[in-house]
Amino acid sequence: MKVTRATFDEVMVPNYNPAGMIPVKGEGSRVWDQDGAEYIDFAGGIAVNVLGHCHPELVNALNEQGSKLWHLSNVFTNEPALRLASKLTEATFAERVYFANSGAEANEAALKLARRYALENFGEHKSQIIAFNKGFHGRTFFTVTVGGQAAYSDGFGPKPGAVDHCDYNDLAAFEALISDNTCAVMMEPLQGEGGIISPEPEFVARVRELCNQHNALLIFDEVQTGVGRTGHLYAYMGLEVTPDILTSAKALGGGFPIGAMLTTAKIAEHLKPGTHGSTYGGNPLACAVAERALDIVNNPEVLEGVVKKEQMFRDYLAEINNKYKVFSEIRGKGLLLGCVLNDDYQGRARDFLVASADEHLMCLVAGTNVVRFAPSLIIPEEDIKEGLVRFERAIASIVNQK
Q1: Does 279 count as an annotated binding residue?
Q2: 224 assigned ligand-binding residue
Q3: Cβ 378 vs Cβ 53: under 8 Å
Q4: What CA–CA distance (Å, rounded) separates 196 from 192?
Q5: Residue 191 assigned ligand-binding role
Q6: Is 221 a known ligand-binding residue?
Q7: Annotated catalytic, 221?
Q8: What is the CATH number of domain 57-297?
Q9: Is there a catalytic annotation at residue 308?
Q10: Three-state SS for 402?
């Protein structure tokens, strides 16, 4: 059956507007479309393809597990899930793990756990959830309400209550919101969709301190920042602030869908049998692939390589910007970087994305003013250089149109 981009408009719900080309094959940081045209991938499936496309060790893990056991349901446990959970607890602050299929599901579990923990320990009055404007936590009705972007949450009727927002890095506003009625604070340790915004160290430290003071749980949404993306296995490790609950997805499976919620034994005990669940969460296929991805990423060579590659990007982008003067700054950490458009190019991030695609470079946006890169953590240096040559051509095409 021959399918084209036009087929999408005929058979798919129109909530996406995908590119004109259809990728059919990937290897490492390169992708080929239906016509055989080759692209360099700086998008990483939105920070998902942490080891690039079709990494041979992930392919082997999938094939090996695929010939053994695919699905059981959580009436039973399975060996890959137990191994993966053991490795996650060994590598982090956590003592207990819950597996889901996505970041939204992991965040949904975290928020439900926080509410249950507060109810059972302190009473019904302790229900407030504080989150941050421009945050993003998923598309379920609960998580999209907690996410601080009205464009995603409005238009679906009454929202879940007791959710309040303030600006990221605005300590005074946060101090005014938090109280003994706060059950949880949910934040990204580096805002992704909201524009690649890093937390100020004193801000995140004070958030932790106030959570302790008010017996509120601190939830770090590390769906985008986790599994090596910032040069640490998880971003909290570089902030010297430990959350009570952490959520992980995207890169965790290296491209195979999986999500995880990590927490302490004391907090976890409030999700007793029957309080929450997932049909596919923790299935052997996903866990086998994620275990191998975690093994590969969680070593000094890969994590230190992320820091070196970040500097390569920053150096080359500075050279490009000296010529074309389109960015006001390069934000982010590790291989989650945002090129912030200056006043002359406000609102045109998508134009840069489209121009990049025309030059056979895949990249992302984060809002209307930031071009975002989230490539494979092991992207070869030659692919970084060639990708940025293509990005420079894209920039030149826009500057010359002006």
Answers
A1: yes
A2: yes
A3: no
A4: 5
A5: no
A6: yes
A7: yes
A8: 3.40.640.10
A9: no
A10: coil
Only one residue has tokens 């600006």, namely 167
According to CATH, where is 3.90.1150.10 located in the chain?
A: 5-55+300-401
Catalytic residue, from 126, 134, 250, 333: name it.
250
Output the six-digit token pair for 147: 């996410």
CA-based radius of gyration for the chain: 21
List every span in the chain annotated with CATH 3.40.640.10: 57-297
* Tokens, residue 120: 């059972």
Q: Is 19 annotated as a binding residue?
A: no
Query: Which two structure tokens, joined as six digits, stand for 54?
Result: 């079709």
> What ranges in 325-359 are assigned the alpha helix state H?
349-358
CA atoms of 360 and 271, how far apart (whole Å): 47
- Answer yes or no: is 248 a known binding residue: no
Q: C-alpha angle 144/236/79, rounded to 5°?
A: 80
Assigned token pair, 198: 């890093």
Q: Name the pLDDT band for 150 (thresholds 50, 70, 90).
A: confident
> Is 250 assigned a catalytic role?
yes
CA atoms within 13 A on the CB side of 154: 4
Q: At what angle do helices 79-91 and 284-297 cross, to 10 degrees?
A: 30
Cα distances (angstroms) measured from residue 324 to each of 112, 267, 347, 369, 395: 48, 52, 17, 16, 8
- The highest-level CATH class for domain 5-55+300-401 is alpha beta
- The active-site residue out of 142, 220, 221, 313 is 221
Q: Which residue has the higher pLDDT, 17 or 392?
A: 392
**DSSP track, 7-55:** HHHHHS-TT----SS-EEEEEBTEEEETT--EEEESSHHHHT-TT-BS-
CA pair distance 360, 354, nearest whole angstrom: 10
For the chain, first and last CA: distance in Å?
A: 43
Would the pTM count as exceeding 0.70? yes
For 331-385, what is each residue's pLDDT tens digit?
Answer: 999 999 999 999 999 999 999 999 999 999 999 999 999 999 999 999 999 999 9
* Active-site residue, selected from the candidate residues 42, 99, 136, 220: 136
- DSSP labels, 87-117: HHHHHSS-SEEEEESSHHHHHHHHHHHHHHH
